[in-house]
Amino acid sequence: MERFITKDNISYELANLKQITFEVTDACNLKCKYCGYGEFYSDYDKRENTNLPIEKAYAILDYLIELWQSNLNQSTEKHVYIGFYGGEPLLNTDFIEKVIEYINQKQIPNRYFTYSMTTNAMLLDKYMDFVARHNFSLLISLDGDEESQSYRVDHAGKNSFERVMQNVKLLQRTHPDYFDKKVNFNAVLHNRSTYERTYRFIKNEFGKMPNITELNNMGIRDDMRETFMATYRNTYESLMQSEHYSEIEKELFIFSGTYQTVATFLQQYSSSVFRDYNELLYGKNEEIRIPTGTCLPFAKRMFVTVSGKILPCERIGQQFSMGQITDDNVVQLDLEKIAEKHNVYLNKVLRQCKTCKIARSCIQCVYNLEDLDGKPICHGYTNQKEFEQYVATQMAFLEKNPEDYYRIMEEVIVE
Predict the structure, then answer these.
(1) Domains and CATH numbers, the chain
(2) Burial code of 248-268, b = ≥16 C-beta within 10 A, e = fewer?
(3) Which residues contact 181 (CB under 8 A, 6 or more apart)?
(4) Whole-model pTM?
(5) Is-contact 369 343, C-beta < 8 A?
(6) Distance between CA atoms of 359 and 381, rounded to whole angstroms?
(7) pLDDT tens per residue across span 300-314
(8) Which runs of consecutive H residues, i.e. helices, occur in 16-92?
């Protein structure tokens, strides 16, 4: 078995962690039909209307603070982003307030903290002064107009649209500067909405360009696959079906899938784009060092679940927990074991990755492959013919839109 990472790699990433997100509560005042913790899915812990104990947050913060102050910390980026997630995080504002107070009391040298929250906005009227006072980067879940919002219902089955709109408009009127600078929207596409209708609604109502996402298609229960597929809509296909898709894409720019793909193509395959001086002087390394596009554990963020499980992010199934904060508030992270397990998973797809022609720009997370503990198959595998088609598509776009090449090269940084 090849060893792609070691415990030292993980230690380094923890000491330079950029973001930690707390699942503040698993309680929610809505019961969205397609919720990632709802009836479609099986890869999460049972929802029991519980809150994350504040002592567990203190424990993981103390663990990280010690690493942030160690010699392993070499990051030039001194910002740390603290995220609050749910359930609905505004159901547990006491926890959020205590985390902020704790960080302020610690007076951590050379670290600057920014706070973010994802909310359904049902309690925003009550807590808007709170979020504005702490200057939260606020991501509001709103699928668009009343029909588009109709899967986001309360526990009585009532559409949340009217209340959410009232609350968001109130926030906009009461804290206009904060709203302009710090508030954004996330919309989930489904069979009761379209990309263009959702985009136009949020832009016209609030002057914002929403992030429009697809339903998570991993961890689907076998008995719910048919219902899921009837609800699911592909964002790219829906955008392409829009009457004004070209105009919308140009407005979205790098937030659209087309421009993201072209930017990645230029970054990875152009002989004129270099990520650092080593690539400029010595050329790009053609060898695949780590299979798939899987992040090194904790390279981007850490996610702490309401039960104290520690994961590398909130986008993977909770069965892949890499550690735990115990009921005695002890942080258990066996870095050797994490590295070993991570290497096992990467080795499962190594043969596919070695012959995949698009491996250099792969975005597939190994933890989102089906049957990972068995014999996973990557459906993004690309042969030579498919790769040539991919290259031709990107080149055709650049030839048709030469002004966008300049814009991508000037404005976009691909990490």
Answers:
(1) 7-244+296-349 (3.20.20.70)
(2) bbeebbeebebbbbbbbbbbb
(3) none
(4) 0.88
(5) no
(6) 8
(7) 999 999 999 999 999
(8) 54-68
